[in-house]
Amino acid sequence: MPANNENLNNENLNVPGDHIQQPARSRALQTTSTEAGGPAGRTLPDDETLLRVRGLKKVYHTDGGDIEAVRNLTFDLGRNELVCLVGPSGSGKTTLLKCIAGLLAPTEGEVVLAGKKITAPPKKMAVVFQEYGRSLFPWLRVADNVELPLKNAGVPKAERTRLVNEALEAVGLAHVPKSYPWQLSGGMQQRVAIARAVAYQPEVLLMDEPFAAVDAQTRADLEDLVRRIWKQLGMTVLFVTHDIDESVYLGQRVIILSSSPTVVQEDLVIDLPAERDQLETRADPRFTELRHHVYEQIQLAKKGHRPDAEKVNR
Ligand SMILES: Nc1ncnc2c1ncn2[C@@H]1O[C@H](COP(=O)(O)OP(=O)(O)OP(=O)(O)O)[C@@H](O)[C@H]1O
């Protein structure tokens, strides 16, 4: 079970043990931030990069005036990387994901997938949202829900059957292909949504707070499921979460967004061993250091600290 979940929406949250003096850091944290002089997000050489986000800005034009949701985001995702994204409520996480998914046009800047600028939903990308209840079709059986995007993509029947069976196997639902979503628990429904995304064999899997609505034990199981599938299938995963522990447990990197209008506050390497375990990893002193650091950064962001403060005030 995830210990010490931290919901960033809760203004009164405390890190248990915060009053205890923290041990000296065992080794330096690997971060990229504007304060270090470079672009806030980590950028990679061309041959290692799958997804590039460059100078991304999004302004919503509403009857009540303009809302600058995202000011300037720059970072790269490498092939087969699992990167988590955290930030205060309203910092533009969903907006960013929608721009990456080609569902929203950026006001400035661009998102580039495998060298091609994204202007519409790319074929090799899948998204899993929090609201699995709304994303599954209640009148379709589990296997038919998973099969639908493959049908729409024109994948031949035999191939579809193989992909659906493999995906249901991978998420531990091979025994319920004929059930309807409403006959399953919340955690199982979210597994169906993950299976549907996985069967599609995306190069990039975007996940927007996918476990926010499930209980803690199910959440821990689903976290391990994501890491297992990510390793098995070799996708690039961008995982948005409100939960600091979850971001550190899952990610190879954690990108921390500032408060709105949003820039990358910090891009932190999670240098925990590749084999993660709910009990052992979370008991690792390095895990505590990393989560403490992410928590501090989020608190700074919530208090309005901005890495681009001089530019903002100018
Ligand atoms: N369709 C829209 N029209 C106008 N403003 C919007 C729209 N969608 C989002 N916003 C505004 O953009 C800002 C960022 O919203 P967004 O949902 O991307 O943030 P978030 O970080 O995902 O939030 P949360 O953590 O609460 O889910 C907010 O001020 C929000 O009110």
Provide an overview of this structure.
The chain is of the alpha/beta class. The protein folds into two domains: about 50-125 and about 200-305, Rossmann fold (3-Layer(aba) Sandwich); about 140-200. The chain is built from ten helices and eleven strands. Strands 1, 2, 3, 4, 5, 6, 7, 8, 9, 10 and 11 form an eleven-stranded mixed sheet that branches. A hairpin with a 2-residue loop joins strand 5 (about 110-115) and strand 6 (about 115). Adenosine-5'-triphosphate (ATP) binds near residues 89, 90, 91, 93 and 94.
| Ligand kinds | adenosine-5'-triphosphate
Mean pLDDT reading: 86
**Proportion of helical residues:** 25-40%
The CATH fourth-level homologous superfamily of the largest domain: P-loop containing nucleotide triphosphate hydrolases
Could you provide a short overview of the structure?
This protein is an alpha/beta fold and 314 residues long.
